[in-house]
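Need residues for this backbone.
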């Protein structure tokens, strides 16, 4: 057989295998998407069942899945074949918030209600939360909302002479809930007497400013310079935003 024909055949076989693998991956994704979206009513039903039984930890797991998949299925409605409205997402987020309130975690509840700050339902539920207790310590967990019911996180730990600050952030692409997000992280120390610190690495510069808001409580406002390619984050991951305190330890 002619060598050129062998090479041509080899290239053709390779292209066919690549096309076949792509088709399989697309089919697998579509199956996972449709299976996940098909469970939305189940998540809501089981969540309510556990909530009514005062099994709030179990209810939380179901409602968090409901919130995550509600947003994900809405974004991917054409492929999922499931219609999810903005109202459905508000209800799912509020279900999580109400469950956190029952678990004695009003700060987490507040954060979830604030995912839909203009919703009348969220505003009512926010008004029912206990008045926030002011803390002199900056230590704790702070979160900023991300896509598909997820959160970017800043953890602040009090050391002997400084606060240890750790950031963990994500970027969820269109298929991120199934294929996973891009990741980014950094850590920096801040003297105990300060409330502002700048993280620097190569051409990366990120400023963290700790403040207190009468309505939102303790928070961190994070601003990164325009060019953050030197931060080493995954594609499209950003630390910028307002992080609300949800845990005091």
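Answer:
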């Amino acid at each position: 057989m002619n060598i050129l024909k062998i090479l041509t055949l080899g290239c053709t076989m390779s292209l066919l295998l690549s096309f076949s693998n792509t088709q399989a991956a697309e089919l697998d994704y579509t199956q996972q998407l449709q299976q996940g979206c098909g469970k939305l009513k189940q998540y809501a039903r089981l969540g309510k069942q556990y909530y009514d039984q005062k099994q709030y930890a179990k209810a939380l797991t179901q409602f968090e899945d409901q919130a995550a998949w509600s947003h994900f299925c809405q974004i991917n409605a054409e492929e999922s074949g499931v219609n999810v409205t903005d109202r459905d997402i508000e209800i799912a987020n509020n279900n999580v918030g109400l469950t956190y309130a029952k678990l004695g975690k009003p700060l987490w509840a507040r954060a979830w209600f604030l995912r839909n700050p203009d919703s009348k339902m969220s505003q009512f539920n926010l008004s029912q939360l206990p008045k926030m207790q002011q803390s002199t310590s900056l230590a704790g967990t702070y979160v900023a909302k991300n896509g598909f019911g997820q959160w970017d996180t800043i953890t602040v730990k009090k050391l002997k002479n400084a606060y240890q600050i750790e950031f963990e952030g994500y970027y969820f692409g269109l298929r991120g809930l199934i294929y996973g997000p891009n990741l980014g992280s950094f850590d920096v120390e801040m003297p105990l007497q300060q409330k502002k610190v700048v993280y620097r690495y190569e051409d990366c510069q990120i400023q963290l400013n700790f403040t207190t808001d009468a309505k939102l409580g303790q928070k961190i406002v994070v601003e990164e310079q325009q060019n953050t390619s030197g931060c080493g984050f995954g594609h499209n991951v950003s630390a910028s935003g307002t992080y609300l305190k949800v845990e005091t330890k």
